[in-house]
Design a protein that fits this description.
alpha/beta, six-stranded mixed beta sheet, 10 helices
């Protein structure tokens, strides 16, 4: 295999937030959210991925919108999504987003999102992180950014820790105010109910996984719903312990990319260690008739993004991404 030909390619998109409902808007009423159109984007993306013979396909969280749970149509909506993804192309992987946790308990999401081969080795029925290798020399690591969170933590201890952290960092939370961000510094806006953190046990697992991959001469691509590098996103869409996670990733030279969702506008930046932070724009907030998805070709020396539709504005969205030396 020469550097002129890709080793393999994979498909990616984020935040479709599908629900079988009419168009809505964000909380500030400034952006239209086209829920049903997202399902058509999933169908188009899946057919495109199949055409390109992708080794795997990844949705970076928020497969469903929380309204699906509120309207009690989440099971039907999930079947709609599965019908437009796995029907057209195999090897899908679903990262857990906050809206998914609004719709289903963790245990149900493990059954729906974590492949059976990985569930068989898990002692915990609510664990949502795992790793897999779609091609020799590469490993994808799926993280659970809501391991420590208020909305659906992985343990009562993690939930208690999340509530204590929110109370200490965000007086709006402590006061029960609807405006989560009033008076907060940009840094502290991350401490809101729609974000979370990677817990200590998951961090130990991540370190062990990265070391094993390094020993096996594998490169790693990290996937998590919540971004970890602020230049690639807004400060209010960051992991609570982003710096701790990023420091761990920097200590492993085989980590080449970190892919996330959550920020519907999308973004991109390369950090000081050379890791590419890729946040695709959400199909949910595309213009009428517009889509947002892509395939990424993996070469010996670089990644190549082949994007269809909406890209982030106000930032570079590169096609060629050189790998760390």
């Amino acid at each position: 295999m020469t550097n002129l030909s890709p080793l393999f390619c994979y498909g990616v998109l984020s935040d479709p937030q599908y629900v079988d409902d009419c168009d809505g808007s964000n909380h500030k009423k400034t952006t239209i959210r086209r829920h049903r159109q997202s399902l058509q984007t999933l169908k188009e993306a899946s057919m495109s991925f199949n055409k390109h013979s992708t080794a795997c396909n990844i949705i970076l969280g928020d497969i469903l919108d929380g309204k699906a749970g509120h309207k009690k149509i989440h099971e039907k909506c999930m079947q709609d999504v599965l019908g437009e993804t796995v029907k057209h192309s195999p090897n899908w992987h679903f990262v857990t987003g906050n809206h998914d946790l609004y719709c289903f308990p963790r245990e149900h999401l493990q059954e729906k999102f974590v492949p059976k081969i990985h569930r068989a080795t898990m002692k915990e029925s609510n664990r949502l992180y795992y790793d897999f290798s779609p091609h020799a020399g590469y490993r994808f690591v799926i993280l659970d950014g809501f391991d420590v969170s208020e909305l659906s933590a992985s343990s009562p201890e993690h939930e208690a820790h999340a509530k204590a952290l929110l109370t200490a960092k965000n007086p709006n939370y402590a006061a029960g105010l609807d405006d989560w961000y009033a008076g907060l510094s940009p840094y502290d806006t991350r401490f809101c109910q729609s974000n979370g953190a990677i817990g200590a046990e998951q961090l130990r697992w991540l370190e062990t996984t990265l070391q094993a991959s390094l020993d096996a001469d594998e490169k790693c691509i990290i996937c998590c719903h919540i971004p970890t590098y602020e230049p690639s996103t807004r400060p209010d869409t960051m992991l609570w312990n982003a710096e701790e996670v990023l420091a761990l990733l920097h200590s492993f030279p085989n980590v080449v990319a970190y892919m996330a969702g959550h920020d519907h506008s999308g973004g991109y930046a390369q950090d000081s260690a050379g890791i590419h932070h890729i946040v695709p724009p959400a199909p949910l907030e595309c213009a009428e008739g517009e889509v947002s998805y892509g395939t990424i070709e993996v070469f010996e020396s670089h990644l190549k993004m082949n994007w269809t539709g909406k890209v982030p504005t106000g930032t570079v969205w590169p096609s060629l991404l050189p790998l760390r030396n």
